[in-house]
Write a structure and sequence with these properties.
The protein is α+β, with helices and mostly antiparallel strands. The protein has helices spanning 2-26, 29-32, 36-54, 60-83, 88-92, 106-111, 116-124, 182-188, 192-201; strands at residues 96-100, 103-104, 134-139, 145-149, 172-176, 179-180, 210-215, 222-225.
Length: 228
């Protein structure tokens, strides 16, 4: 029993030191700039070490070899992407412009396997609750969105300008991916006929032609068709 504990302690210690060394060698981007490839590589490395530690038939040489080999592969990829710019999109991916001049780039969203609900979630993480506030939005390789706001919504803020506070309204979605959001219409006490009339005023033939539409108190409807 004591021998088993000693062996496990030794393997845990060696695995810990090896992972610590590997993390220092690979740099901070494994955490701060976690791309899908980095995420998967970290999981695989953890599984290799974990399985090696708890498998009685595998000893210290296997743990060290697994950590060394996997770390070498990741390190080689990092060096290649630093030295050769042309292979960076293949190995790391590249940023994608998902909002340009205030318009959602639907085809680019589809290409990056991102739907509108996910885009809205990423924007809310940036304290942006309405797409109308965004001039440009860039989907980064780590899955986050970088945003350049429209001048109307950019700093300075009301406090800087000594503007008295006013009520804040939450934007209400009315159309998403060519389909009516019934909850939004119910909140406004409106029906689909009213919505269709608003679309006709903008020269839009019907709901199925609209990618995104929202209502915000005191402003015009924000309507973005699939093609504009």
């Amino acid at each position: 029993m004591n021998t088993n504990f000693l062996a496990l302690t030794t393997e845990l210690f060696v695995g810990f030191v090896a992972l610590l060394f590997l993390t220092k060698m690979l740099g901070k981007n494994q955490i701060t700039q976690l791309t899908p490839f980095d995420f998967i590589s970290a999981i695989v490395l953890g599984e290799l070490v974990g399985n090696a530690i708890y498998d009685k038939d595998i000893g210290l040489p296997y743990i060290l070899y697994a950590v060394f080999l996997w770390g070498t592969l990741i390190y080689s990829v990092q060096k290649l992407t630093q030295k050769f710019r042309g292979i960076r999109p293949l190995l790391e991916g590249q940023p994608a412009l998902v909002i340009a001049k205030g318009k959602i780039q639907y085809e680019i969203l589809k290409k990056n396997k991102l739907d509108l609900n996910q885009l809205q979630h990423l924007l809310r993480e940036k304290d942006i609750f309405s797409i109308r506030e965004v001039e440009y939005g860039i989907l980064e390789t780590n899955g986050s969105v970088s945003v350049l706001k429209k001048k109307l919504y950019d700093t300075p803020n009301n406090q800087d300008l000594n503007i008295p506070p006013s009520n804040v309204a939450l934007p209400i979605m009315l159309i998403l991916d060519g389909e009516v959001i019934k909850e939004g219409l119910q909140f406004l006490n409106k029906n689909e006929d009213w919505l269709k009339e608003e679309l006709i005023k903008r020269g839009i033939p019907g709901i199925s032609a609209v990618l995104y539409a929202e209502w915000l108190e005191g402003q015009e409807l924000e309507i973005q068709p699939y093609s504009s």
